[in-house]
Amino acid sequence: MVYISRKEHFNAAHRLFNPNWSEERNKEVFGPCANHNWHGHNFELIVTVKGEPDPDTGFVIDLKVLGDVIKREIIEQLDHKNINLDVPFMQGKMASCEILVIEIWRLLDQALSPLTEARLHQIRLYETERNFVDYYGE
Amino acid sequence: MVYISRKEHFNAAHRLFNPNWSEERNKEVFGPCANHNWHGHNFELIVTVKGEPDPDTGFVIDLKVLGDVIKREIIEQLDHKNINLDVPFMQGKMASCEILVIEIWRLLDQALSPLTEARLHQIRLYETERNFVDYYGE
Amino acid sequence: MVYISRKEHFNAAHRLFNPNWSEERNKEVFGPCANHNWHGHNFELIVTVKGEPDPDTGFVIDLKVLGDVIKREIIEQLDHKNINLDVPFMQGKMASCEILVIEIWRLLDQALSPLTEARLHQIRLYETERNFVDYYGE
Amino acid sequence: MVYISRKEHFNAAHRLFNPNWSEERNKEVFGPCANHNWHGHNFELIVTVKGEPDPDTGFVIDLKVLGDVIKREIIEQLDHKNINLDVPFMQGKMASCEILVIEIWRLLDQALSPLTEARLHQIRLYETERNFVDYYGE
Amino acid sequence: MVYISRKEHFNAAHRLFNPNWSEERNKEVFGPCANHNWHGHNFELIVTVKGEPDPDTGFVIDLKVLGDVIKREIIEQLDHKNINLDVPFMQGKMASCEILVIEIWRLLDQALSPLTEARLHQIRLYETERNFVDYYGE
Amino acid sequence: MVYISRKEHFNAAHRLFNPNWSEERNKEVFGPCANHNWHGHNFELIVTVKGEPDPDTGFVIDLKVLGDVIKREIIEQLDHKNINLDVPFMQGKMASCEILVIEIWRLLDQALSPLTEARLHQIRLYETERNFVDYYGE
């Protein structure tokens, strides 16, 4: 079993905000991350799949295929967008990295399953160089 | 003459948009950077000052003083903010890195002049790891 | 279960030295790391906790709380210090990264337990960009 | 149990090419990676071993010993070489990162076993900053 | 005058070799860089242009235009190629970074001049993270 | 004229301390950097020389020669050392980066002059990823 990873990036705006709470409660809990007029990040996304290398190619998965799936399913929906307002799969959800990484797993798992025997292993999402989250599908 | 540099960072949202142009013209020129609902970045700011080391301290400038000035004058005004909407010194200006770096120079030069004999030499601003601008005050 | 990580850094001096051994034996085993007058590093510390995102906040843990705990419990005790001489929790212990990372786990686990249902998952400590250690509490 | 890692690098040329296939099939599957005249990379290799710290040294393994083994067994055979043509342990194998990382594991495991009670845990190989593979020996 | 920079990358094989010299002389001068079967690198290319920001766009140059020119003129000719064998503009020249950076300047200066009033200022080429060259056109 | 740069690193302990001042004055000016028991850093040193590429080699300077000079003159004297106590060329001087970079220039200029027509252009010294100094010899 070999694990292979591909890093992609996107730039997006977001805001941490619970619509069931008052503005004061949001400010108190989320601090500057609740800024009414949004803020943003350069996100780095690392997708890891695992499987046995194909004897004919030496590949667990063709990285071009993996890259294309990530770009089509995730990057095109998030890059230069507002995560709270512009991204269909985040509607009605908190725009935190924890929630985002679970949704990214769900979309990639769905898109990769018909294409490859390799299985999704890990999603890592860097919000900044100093803050990042991991999700393993469970 | 020794040059000493300090790196600080801020996260912000922005949008490239010329209010004198139609929506179509903005889309055509700025592409996804004109996204109506904003996008954002982790900006890295490197400030360089030059001067002769003080014989008593070995310092061109006390980096704590430099860091405090950068934080007070620049980071507190930009971090977790919308550059177009929330930042007084960017009102009525294009929110491009080129314009931002000129304004950062102006504010830092003003704030540092009374504090030190060291002179501001360069401002470098990274919008992403792959795009950055430099300004030398002229 | 989502894993969330926060990176902090500190600068410190240390020396690898076993007081039960002769100077020669120390030199032989630890080489330049035994230098009598110390040497030092920019350490990078990555702390990972795991848990389920809170439905109201989208957070596994408030990163501000996590950052504050790391700073108070670990960074303030190690930054700009001599690990062998100045750090109470390292007294009588070898100042290697392997020992340091176990002690950091112990202190953070103790400090985080009363504050959060999220559990400490991993401590990673970079001594240099090329040397690092991980500890998972067992 | 503490995990300790050492990063080393090498520069090498390679080509993805299945000799049982036509030139056209190779181009179709491997794209520019099949370029007849080779291409190359700065590879980064991270080797992780795990074990209990020795009470006399605080070491899981002497990093100088680990570094020397990696350099002698792996780096000297790969650095400034052509992976397809010059590297004995890759003869008759696909020069993909997936295959390379398995062979590196085999050689390091063999070389480290007689020297230390620490066990090899993970091999990570970066082909570029954006593409990397991991192998855990099974 | 603002300076704006764009980073692009390419992977290539090369060999340092003077065809007027004996194999022995080449080995003596270039060491492992003369390896007959090539070696390779992940090159990072940073292109800096300078000019005055356009009042309508805030741009010194549209970075999309700059990126497209770099990709068309330079990256497509070098990426996944053998610098000695596959690259027309390097025929009959030493495949060192010093020579490469001069040729890159020549091609980019020629391609950018008709497109923009901004002038090429600097080309930086990283062969590895530790070795890089700069050229300013004179 | 091409500029070529080589990065090397060293780990060292130091302390900012003016022996003509009281302990209180030192604490006041240098803060935690005055810690009596030292602290330390992973320093990164980038040395840039400039010259015309030799037509036979394509080299401004043989990077192996440059690397060897930097290691012999600078790294061996600073690595795993105490800058205040162990380094002959820093005796009686403030152990700040500003002073260190001037001394490094002096030693390298002296060592390189008889070996090459290339001239030393810049010394950059990173104390941390966020603090660095440059010196151009004047």
TrEMBL record, chains A, B, C, D, E, F:
<dbReference type="Pfam" id="PF01242">
    <property type="entry name" value="PTPS"/>
</dbReference>
<protein>
    <recommendedName>
        <fullName>6-carboxy-5,6,7,8-tetrahydropterin synthase</fullName>
        <ecNumber>4.1.2.50</ecNumber>
    </recommendedName>
</protein>
<comment type="pathway">
    <text>Purine metabolism; 7-cyano-7-deazaguanine biosynthesis.</text>
</comment>
<comment type="similarity">
    <text>Belongs to the PTPS family. QueD subfamily.</text>
</comment>
<dbReference type="InterPro" id="IPR007115">
    <property type="entry name" value="6-PTP_synth/QueD"/>
</dbReference>
<keyword id="KW-0456">Lyase</keyword>
<dbReference type="InterPro" id="IPR038418">
    <property type="entry name" value="6-PTP_synth/QueD_sf"/>
</dbReference>
<keyword id="KW-0862">Zinc</keyword>
<keyword id="KW-0479">Metal-binding</keyword>
